[in-house]
Specification:
The relative contact order is 0.11. With 278 residues, the protein is mostly helical. It folds into 2 domains: 110 residues, no CATH class; 167 residues, Farnesyl Diphosphate Synthase (Orthogonal Bundle), CATH 1.10.600.10. Helix 3 packs antiparallel against helix 9, helix 10 runs antiparallel to helix 14 and helix 14 runs antiparallel to helix 16. The chain is globular and about 55 Å long.
């Protein structure tokens, strides 16, 4: 089993370095469980890239659903991420229903159907990103930090989608809600062709404003955050600086935070929790 947790740690370090760095601030006895949770998230978040077509992706996500329902115990024991995740669920009493909802939400990623409304976008971010924050906090504290997890996940999840906007446009995926694009008179064909416009910049700016409102809500809830739960929320410290760079960037060439600075921002937030949603 230790090999399975070590595999998860390496996967997270390669695929989700921000959460890997944040987990280093957690007590050693909880890092393996965090790595298992985050590795599971990496696996289902990259299904589209791995499968390339919807049907193989559906099959893969269905496999994970069946693992979580206890229907593929033999296969799960041979898969390092699945075996580590199931051990983590048992040890920390994680709600399988929430993990199943996370898998279900990722089915949206497999297809080119657009995100229609801001409400749809919020449901997607709440079911994926907010759930991940809450589950990580539960591993660390034996209780969900629901009040903070929801706005934290909305801010972090939507900011991540904004950073990935160029890649999604190339794949003809649309996470920017259609209602926002219509409000700013953006033609979807222009977006997929990689053509910037005043309207597109205004649409993305509207979403960044929305993310900042979630950050304010998260900031109001950090006062009650326990030191034990802090590592679960450290990646949130990257959202504000990421938005500042997006403000100054072309829609199709977003400026990224340098890796050394990402590490420094997480370290700084670990020393001063007020900076998590600052």
């Amino acid at each position: 089993m230790q090999d399975a947790f070590a595999y998860c740690a390496e996967l997270v370090r390669a695929a989700d370095r921000d959460r890997y760095l944040a987990a280093l601030f957690a007590p050693a006895q909880h890092r393996g469980a965090l790595h298992a949770l985050y590795a599971f998230n990496c696996e289902i978040a990259r299904v589209r890239e791995a499968a390339r077509e919807p049907l193989p992706g559906e099959i893969r996500l269905q496999w994970w659903s069946e693992v979580l329902r206890g229907e593929r115990s033999e296969e799960a024991s041979a898969n390092p991420v699945a075996s580590a995740l199931l051990a983590t669920i048992e040890q920390h009493q994680l709600p399988a229903a929430r993990l199943l909802d996370l898998v279900e939400a990722r089915r949206f990623d497999l297809y080119d159907e657009p995100m229609l409304t801001i409400a749809d976008l919020e449901v997607y971010a709440r079911t994926t990103s907010s759930a991940l924050f809450a589950l990580a906090a539960q591993i660390l504290t034996c209780g969900e930090a629901k009040a903070l997890a929801e706005p934290a996940g909305l801010a972090y999840g939507i900011a991540a989608l904004l950073r990935a906007f160029p890649q999604h446009a190339v794949r003809r995926q649309l996470y920017v809600p259609v209602e926002v694009l219509q409000r700013h008179q953006v033609q979807i064909d222009d977006l997929f062709a990689g053509r910037s416009s005043v309207g597109l910049n205004a649409a993305l700016a509207e979403l960044r404003t929305l993310v900042r409102r979630y950050l304010v809500a998260a900031r109001e809830r950090t006062a009650g955050l326990s030191a034990a739960a802090l590592p679960a929320f450290l990646p949130l410290a990257l959202v504000g600086p990421s938005l500042a760079r997006l403000d100054r960037s072309d829609a199709f060439a977003p400026a990224e935070i340098a890796p050394w600075r990402r590490q420094w921002l997480i370290w700084r937030a670990a020393r001063n929790p007020a900076r998590i949603a600052g």
